[in-house]
Amino acid sequence: MKTDSDNCIASLTTAKTVAAISSIQITGAGSVNILRKIFRPAGKTVDFNEGNILHGFIFASGRDIDEVVIGCEGKDNFSINCHGNPLIVENILELLKRHGARVVEPEEIMMLLGRGKYGDNTIAVEADIAAAGAASLAGAQIIAHQLKMGLFNTAQSWLKNMNVSQIEDIGACAERILKDSRIADFFIRGVKVVIAGAPNSGKSTLFNYLCGKEKAIVTDIAGTTRDWLSAKVKLKKITAEFFDTAGLDEDLSEKNIIDSQSQKQAVDLINECDLVLVVVDCTNPAIVMAGLTEAKKKIAVFNKCDLIDKSAVAGLPYGVKISAKTGAGVNELIDWIEQSLGVWDFDLKKTVCFTERQKKILEQIASAETKRQIERLITELLKCCLVIS
Q1: What's the pLDDT tens digit per position in 225-243?
Q2: Which residues contact 289 (CB under 8 A, 6 or more apart)?
Q3: Which of 158, 109, 151 is closest to 7 using CA atoms?
Q4: What confidence score (pLDDT) does residue 6 get?
Q5: Which CATH architecture has domain 120-389?
Q6: Do domains 9-104 and 120-389 have the same CATH topology?
């Protein structure tokens, strides 16, 4: 049953997990009318004017659902801050829906509010949405720089100087932006790092050390890990999701269906990740590993250096020398990871793109053959009507 305007939308804007506090945003014509029907103030009066903070209860059918704090953030725009139990959140969203609000994904609300704040500046609207999900503070800073400077300023400058600019210069600039964006993306979305190597090389021990706790089972029996595990870890500059994989062995791929699938999963992860840590048992470094030929970026990690003498360690090939068991060298390994990905000395104020839409438009600008094409594409980059997929 709908009793208010279809323009009223609501969404959970915090994570869909158990938390201390969850926040539900409701905005659009009819928001106040809906809140009046489901909100009981703790005091005697209730004032939904902008800037007020209201304490009370969300109720339905004569019973309280939860104690909440409502923030009046603007005209027809409110945040309902409730306890972070998913059942409570679901009940409140269902109540809002019954009273006429359309429940949407958080991006749609952020887009609507962004349009009210930035008008037709599409890059700024995208920046608000993307910054909320950035994997690191540095990622959020990179995105924020594109809002008025960075990408927005560069695109405006292209339009302003179109008559005197060369197509080749604009294309070259677009290519540089795309190249820098690949590194910026590691700050914004994090990286996927696969820990690979032969069975019993110490992959799971390294994985556990990086995680700071034992997530993977570790034994002296080769081939203990058959399925992959993952964990997100905050490094020095970026966030990395590490994957512990089954030991790579060509013989295992034909042993039985379980081992065959484990080998395939490991190879698939290697081909899809940003970086592979090739873990080698330095007490037996001659073992050749399968499945690593297609990996784009690799770091050789010689493990178990605590089991050989210093002269033997010095004689190992180029790579990081560590002991995953004691943690020796792991700090240096983290430096190698960030340096190999290009994030170590990356300038956070570089001009980059941070959405797939922006990337596709810049790719077209880089290959455009006429100024008319470029002008149309830049206008689309700046003022496109966004659609939530």
Answers
A1: 456 688 999 999 999 999 9
A2: 196, 197, 198, 248, 278, 280
A3: 109
A4: 58
A5: 3-Layer(aba) Sandwich (3.40)
A6: no
Structure tokens at 108: 């749609």
* Amino acid found at 85: N
Question: How many whole angstroms separate alpha carbon 235 and alpha carbon 334?
Answer: 7
Using CA atoms, how far apart are residues 127 and 133, in angstroms rounded to an integer? 10
**Residues 240 and 334 sit within 8 Å (Cβ to Cβ):** no
> Which of the four pLDDT bands, split at 50, 70 and 90, describes residue 330?
very high
Two tokens at 185? 């993306």
pLDDT > 70 in the chain, percent: 86
Domain ranges of the chain: 9-104, 120-389
Q: How far is CA 93 from CA 4, 60, 325, in A?
A: 15, 12, 48
The CATH number of 9-104 is which of 3.30.1360.120, 3.40.50.2000, 3.40.50.300, 3.40.50.720? 3.30.1360.120
